[in-house]
Design brief:
The structure is a single chain. By secondary structure, the protein is of the alpha/beta class. It has two domains: 222 residues, 3-Layer(aba) Sandwich (Rossmann fold); 44 residues. Helices cover 35% and strands 28% of the residues. The chain is built from ten helices and twelve strands. The chain has a six-stranded mixed β-sheet, sandwiched between helices. Helix 8 packs across helix 10. The chain starts with a strand and ends with a helix. The relative contact order is 0.14. The model has no long low-confidence stretch (mean pLDDT 91). The structure holds adenosine-5'-triphosphate (ATP). InterPro entries: AAA+_ATPase, ABC_transporter-like_ATP-bd, ABC_transporter-like_CS, ABC_transporter_ATP-binding, P-loop_NTPase. GO terms for molecular function: ATP binding; ATP hydrolysis activity. It is found in: Cell membrane.
Length: 289
Amino acid sequence: MVMTVDGLRMRYGDTDVLSDVSFAARPGEVLALLGPNGAGKSTTIEILEGFRLRSAGDVEVLGVDPAAGDEHWRSRLGIVLQSWRDHGNWRVRELLHHLGRYYAPYSTSAAPRPWPTDELLDAVGLTPFAGQKIKTLSGGQRRRLDVAIGIVGRPDVLFLDEPTVGFDPEARSEFHELVRRLAAEQDTTILLTTHDLNEADKLADRILVLAGGRIIAAGTTAELTTLIAGQDEVRWSVDGRPFRESTTDSTRFVRDLFGTYGDRLRELEVRRASLEDTYLTLVRGQETT
Ligand SMILES: Nc1ncnc2c1ncn2[C@@H]1O[C@H](COP(=O)(O)OP(=O)(O)OP(=O)(O)O)[C@@H](O)[C@H]1O
């Protein structure tokens, strides 16, 4: 396992934000951490990065307790936090080249570090802006630069905190490709937070839902939806009257409808529960317990 979290607790003052968080990640796995505002997603990531000291629990990233991580350990992590605000007068290529130099002593034959600047610019779609000053970039271009800064050291583990906020659909789709490529070709293990359920669905091998200080559900979208009963919605009309019903077995339900109504059955539609339906049910269920 590249990352293991067992019984993680984080207390601010007398409030437990995280009370008992446990999960693990395999090499090259992409995990999406979902949860309502204030659930503790950024806190979890900051603890894993070694930026924040936890109150209790066992945590290991690349075999090291983040609270005791040294520079060598840190060089194997990539971090994309909320936007990079300094260095407005630097040019894009210049900054990436400069930051990349920090990783050179940690280069190995399996992971040559840093990522060559021009290749990296190309990978994040910033080649046309390479000579531009950072303060002149658009919001989305700026975010691509944040991502480039996070991966310039060819990290073994990459943390992405809401990476695609402000991306246009094309940039988002290109970013998704980049993340999948990092995981598949470089075996980078990726933990990202997002409020975009579609993004979590597309990107993640596994989704972790954090609420009430715990991981309340984990799995693929399909696995999560099977946790929720009444997952499909069937709609139809008979003699011009519309009907709708939720069912766990839409195939059987539809067969019964045909049995009952035969050719009078019109406008039949089966709608699978979306990740959004499942997520909302999970989080609302947690709030009422
Ligand atoms: N340094 C701190 N001191 C006290 N409370 C804090 C501190 N940092 C965060 N918190 C609280 O911890 C909770 C979790 O915050 P965190 O930023 O981890 O949530 P999040 O899931 O990332 O939220 P969002 O989706 O809004 O980004 C919030 O209630 C926040 O107010």
